[in-house]
């Protein structure tokens, strides 16, 4: 399943006439455009995890509250890695909230104060969406192994975080 995301760039301002060595400029820019979705997803995931961290309540509160902290930190670091890869590929990384909202195909996370189970179930759905987008970009990134490797490593950790949540949801 290969999905190409539609992120608009302004010629001359948002793309350079170079990319990383070993691939042509068109391929580098295509790949940067594709992984822009990961930057949007990671920025949104970071904020959503922090929101859940602040608003989770009930049994297992402290365990879930503290489980989210390392995820939040790593997701923020992943966003930085992806943004830097986009720029290395010769395209401006777009981290502004308006672009994130404009380019997404889903609604905001809907929970405020809610139980640990409700937040974890909702976060499980968020992780599924993010990981599916990663897998689509990994398929496209097969053209460039260094970007593919970055995405594979991050996806592996995101899948592990999702597993942590799913383990809490087991009865």
From TrEMBL:
<feature type="domain" description="Ferritin/DPS">
    <location>
        <begin position="33"/>
        <end position="170"/>
    </location>
</feature>
<dbReference type="InterPro" id="IPR009078">
    <property type="entry name" value="Ferritin-like_SF"/>
</dbReference>
<comment type="similarity">
    <text>Belongs to the Dps family.</text>
</comment>
<dbReference type="GO" id="GO:0016722">
    <property type="term" value="F:oxidoreductase activity, acting on metal ions"/>
</dbReference>
<dbReference type="InterPro" id="IPR012347">
    <property type="entry name" value="Ferritin-like"/>
</dbReference>
<dbReference type="InterPro" id="IPR002177">
    <property type="entry name" value="DPS_DNA-bd"/>
</dbReference>
<dbReference type="InterPro" id="IPR023188">
    <property type="entry name" value="DPS_DNA-bd_CS"/>
</dbReference>
<dbReference type="InterPro" id="IPR008331">
    <property type="entry name" value="Ferritin_DPS_dom"/>
</dbReference>
<protein>
    <submittedName>
        <fullName>DNA starvation/stationary phase protection protein</fullName>
    </submittedName>
</protein>
<dbReference type="Pfam" id="PF00210">
    <property type="entry name" value="Ferritin"/>
</dbReference>
<dbReference type="GO" id="GO:0008199">
    <property type="term" value="F:ferric iron binding"/>
</dbReference>
């Amino acid at each position: 399943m290969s999905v190409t995301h539609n992120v608009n760039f302004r010629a001359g301002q948002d793309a350079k006439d170079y990319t990383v060595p070993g691939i042509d400029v068109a391929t580098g820019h295509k790949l940067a455009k594709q992984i822009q979705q990961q930057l949007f997803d990671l920025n949104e995931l970071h904020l959503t995890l922090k929101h859940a961290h602040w608003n989770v309540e009930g049994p297992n509160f402290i365990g879930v509250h503290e489980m989210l902290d390392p995820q939040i930190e790593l997701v923020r670091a992943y966003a930085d890695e992806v943004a830097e890869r986009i720029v290395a590929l010769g395209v401006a990384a777009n981290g502004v909230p308006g672009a994130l909202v404009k380019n997404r195909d889903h609604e905001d996370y809907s929970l405020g104060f809610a139980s640990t189970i409700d937040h974890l179930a909702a976060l499980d759905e968020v992780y599924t969406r993010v990981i599916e987008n990663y897998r689509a970009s990994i398929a496209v990134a097969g053209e460039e192994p260094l970007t593919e490797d970055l995405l594979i490593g991050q996806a592996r950790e995101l899948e592990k975080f999702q597993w942590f949540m799913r383990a809490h949801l087991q009865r």
